[in-house]
Amino acid sequence: MPGQDQGQDHLTVTVMRGGSDAPQRPEAFQVPAYDNQTVLDVVSWIQQNTDPTLTYRFACRVGMCGSCAMMVNGVPRWTCRTHVNKVLRDGALEVGPLRNLPVIKDLAADMDPFFDKWVAAEGRHHPTRSRDDDIAPIDPAGDDRQAASAGIECINCSICYSACDTVAGNPDYLGPAALQRAWTLFNDAKDDSRDAILDAVSGKGGCHSCHSMGSCTTYCPNDLDPLSAIAGLKRATVKRAFGGRK
């Protein structure tokens, strides 16, 4: 390989190519193997040295933005934080776009359905006060605040959405991230629309569609627990249905 030492070890990397205008197909590349290289390093090497038409996303490279999320040997991962030597299978690596989302091209998935469901789950703040009012005091140690704070580190990378088999089998399902956001707002004392949130998550494709398999929690790179958040929504919707309160 030009520019590499003759004794340089190499990896066989299979990348899924194609997208909305062409069927997806696997394409194999030989990539130099280095110590401590990440999957994003490998994808970038292919684009920079072998095929400049390879399409993928990345931004921060340090696990802050989530834009580099892809399927790596069948598992959704942040590729910037995934070291190759920890995920190799028989010396080989397969990289594809996130599942459960349309593919724009190659490794770039269309995130619109993911964010559409975020909106459908009432995943937006409904303020109790205007900017002209004093800020409401909040007890950071309160149970509601603790429940709300448990999910605020979600960065919308869609790892949980791609890991979810319920999403794969039910396109109407809102998905773990949107439901976790709904639970966060439901527990936020500064949010004024608990009923609107429960209305949004109790209908078709809502929290009761979850099969409690737990892949969302297992694969979340930020160690969040969407499964518990969804369970909380299930309890809240049932209590309301029977005339109770949270």
Describe what this molecule looks like in 3D.
This protein has 2 domains: 100 residues, Ubiquitin-like (UB roll); 130 residues, Fumarate Reductase Iron-sulfur Protein, Chain B, domain 2 (Orthogonal Bundle). It is of the alpha+beta class and 246 residues long. The N terminus is likely disordered. The longest helix has 16 residues.
Task: Outline the secondary-structure elements.
Layout: E1 10-19, E2 22-32, H1 39-49, E3 69-72, E4 75-78, H2 84-87, E5 92-96, E6 103-105, E7 108-109, H3 112-120, H4 143-149, H5 159-163, H6 165-169, H7 176-186, H8 194-202, H9 215-219, H10 226-241
Parallel strand pairs: 1-5
Antiparallel strand pairs: 1-2, 3-4, 3-5, 6-7
Q: Characterize the main sheet.
A: 5 strands, mixed
The neighbouring-strand order within the major sheet is: 2-1-5-3-4
* Cα Rg: 21 Å
CATH superfamily of the largest domain: Alpha-helical ferredoxin
The CATH topology of the largest domain: Fumarate Reductase Iron-sulfur Protein, Chain B, domain 2
Number of domains: 2
Q: Tell me, rounded to a whole number, the average pLDDT.
A: 93
Query: What is the overall number of helices?
Result: 10
Task: Report the portion of residues in β strands.
Answer: 15-25%
Overall 3D geometry? elongated
SSE string, helix = H, strand = E?
A: EEHEEHEEEHHHHHHHH
Which CATH top level class of the largest domain fits? Mainly Alpha
- The N- and C-terminal alpha carbons lie at a distance of 64 Å
